[in-house]
Input
Amino acid sequence: MTQAPAHHRGTRSRDAILDSAADLMSRHGYAATSISMVSAACGLPVSSIYWHFGSKDGIYVAVLERARTVLLAALPPADVPGADVAQRLDTFLVEVADAFQRHPHGVKLLLGLGTVQQDASAAAVAEVRRYRDALVAWARDAVSSVFSLRDRPEVADELARFTLRTASGTAVARWFEPDTVLETGPLRVALLALAAHHGVPVRGVPGGDAPPRGITTRE
Amino acid sequence: MTQAPAHHRGTRSRDAILDSAADLMSRHGYAATSISMVSAACGLPVSSIYWHFGSKDGIYVAVLERARTVLLAALPPADVPGADVAQRLDTFLVEVADAFQRHPHGVKLLLGLGTVQQDASAAAVAEVRRYRDALVAWARDAVSSVFSLRDRPEVADELARFTLRTASGTAVARWFEPDTVLETGPLRVALLALAAHHGVPVRGVPGGDAPPRGITTRE
DNA sequence: GTCTATAAATGGATAGAC
DNA sequence: GTCTATCCATTTATAGAC
Output
């Protein structure tokens, strides 16, 4: 086990630190997470942590950066496949709910920023903004693809904002009730109504019929 | 000025401390707010703060309690007036957006809990839960009144959840873009569609017409 | 009720041997 | 790259005069 090359032990330790830090920071927030807590959680001494990341801010930035790349890699391509709006919308919703379920850390980490914002490192603020911007861009492209909105960017923006706000609101709710899931049923109805309200043609979607399998409604 | 009775100076100081603490905690979060910061902000020494509240937790609990009573007092009665659904819905949305605009602290304080949750005082956790429960109950009663849902509690629950998630998601967005407002236009369309989807009669509401004055759309 | 002063603990961060 | 030991600032909280 100790046969592994030095740099392997290094990156392993780095990842272990990031794992512990991400877990603690997403649960307690940035300010409430101390280096000694991270040290205790991953088993490495504080000086190793400082050797890898330089400062507490450095850890936060690295945690955010990894969370962002992992989440974006997990998100489906923004070019949603499907013959008509109904198919693409269902695919989109299932994938969003899935990513939301599998990556509960994301939003919590972003919210952890609330405790840094004003004062702390410009690097952390920039990284948070990058994270958030990437999500917004993805959502805009995805709904644009679902509803064929290449020539109606304002509508795409509105639908994307609406989707993201529902998702982050649900993340807040999960704060209190851990087993809260993203309710894609109502979201589906809402998105279709918004599209229709803006005169977007939604061929193949019968008004507000029962959602197909894989869509979450409550009871 | 120093003529005021002792207990007046007392409650005044108490309020001043609460003002400063609420401001700081909603901006930086619970963990990142120190007693000395509060002391510097309100001008009273730390020992006075401890005399009034006993502990840091005690301050947080008091801040939450006051925020809750203030917000609930500011919310319109859950019995929304209006002749038909359209009127009541518009009244409801305007009032919600108004309260949302005037009390930007609420959600941030609730999220500050994330930094306490596990370990800290049961009192703080209980107070946060009370805050949140009061909001949920109010929203359920209000939408129930708007759409006359006394005999469809599940539908009222769904609409209330949906409304609150949109609102808290918007609060999160405001985290990044301070001048974000609650977009009642899309929310109106969504709520009407959801009601219709559940077969709730919405007399006097033409499909998805242009929203009346006072309803916020973007550009 | 308010102040000064301080105790006791913990936080972030570094030094230097290995 | 990892470890032990440590510096220094800040934190929560208290003591006791006024």
Remarks:
- Residues 34-36, 46-47, 50, 55-56 of chain B lie near DNA strand D (CB under 10 Å from a C1').
